[in-house]
TrEMBL record:
Protein origin, superkingdom: Bacteria
Record flagged with keyword Metal-binding: no
Pfam families xrefs: MDMPI_C, MDMPI_N
UniProtKB keywords: Isomerase
Organism ancestry: Bacteria, Bacillati, Actinomycetota, Actinomycetes, Micrococcales
Name this protein carries in UniProt: Mycothiol-dependent maleylpyruvate isomerase
Ranges of residues in domain Mycothiol-dependent maleylpyruvate isomerase metal-binding: 16-148
Domain MDMPI C-terminal intervals: 156-238
Length: 240
């Protein structure tokens, strides 16, 4: 579930800037070190974000030409691109991020109204209009800006992004119905979200940014679950 197109494009631009801010805040040595993502260094995160821009640019080509151009040539290509990319020198990785993001932005800017409506296929196999491409990119640059472990945290991401991310993940988790039922009650926002799942819904309260972190499988602080011993939060399966 993507936000309306104008907001998606604005958030993508802001997220690209935030990712670059995070990337500039870490040294080359820190980039080679581990992150909170199991098995991934900062170089893995950076290579993934750069390769993702190139993969989404394939969907832009599909939207522009009408010729099927998948994100990846095979299911294994995504992982292979990340592993190979993570061996690059840090200077090359930083330039790859900048160049691939600029190319994607230019490609999206070239689409006309009809091309924006053309359907393309995501890496998960969903057919979506090209208007969803900016949101697909927004999720990557925003969330991974935090994963780099530099100067950007979840609280630094825009509130509009947190709300849109919760809309997206709640819809996905509710559709799967393979986890706990949840009622998400931000302490700094009037909106509420309900996740369909097993058992009676557990109410989780806290800042909107931390609820977004929790639902996306990242470390969240300052949250409490009503009725849970020691405030333990229900365990969640992988989101994406």
């Amino acid at each position: 579930m993507a936000p309306e197109p104008a907001l998606s494009r604005d958030l993508m631009a802001r997220g690209t800037t935030l990712f670059w801010t995070a990337l500039e805040s870490v040294t080359d040595e820190q980039l080679a070190g581990p992150t909170a993502l199991p098995g991934w260094t900062g170089k893995h995160v950076t290579a993934h974000v750069a390769a993702n821009a190139e993969a989404l640019a394939h969907l832009v080509t599909w939207a522009r030409t009408g010729e099927e151009t998948p994100m990846y040539s095979s299911p294994d290509q995504r992982n292979a691109d990340i592993e190979v990319g993570a061996t690059r020198p840090a200077t090359e990785l930083r330039e790859w991020v900048r160049r691939s993001a600029a190319d994607l932005g230019a490609g999206l800017a070239s689409l006309d109204e009809q091309q924006w409506q053309r359907e393309v296929r995501t890496a998960q196999g969903r057919l979506v209009p090209a208007t969803e491409i900016p949101w697909m990119r927004t999720r990557e640059v925003m969330v991974h800006a935090v994963d780099l472990g530099g100067s950007v945290g979840y609280a630094d991401l825009p509130a509009e992004f947190h709300a849109a991310l919760l809309d997206d993940i709640v819809a996905k988790r509710s559709s799967a119905s393979d986890g706990p039922a949840l009622h998400l009650a931000p302490t700094d926002n009037e909106r509420r979200w309900d996740v369909t799942g097993a058992g009676d819904a557990t109410t989780v309260r806290g800042p909107l940014s931390e609820l977004a972190a929790y639902l996306s499988g990242r470390l969240a602080t300052g949250l409490r679950a009503d009725g849970a011993a020691d405030g333990d939060l229900p365990d969640l399966s992988r989101w994406l």
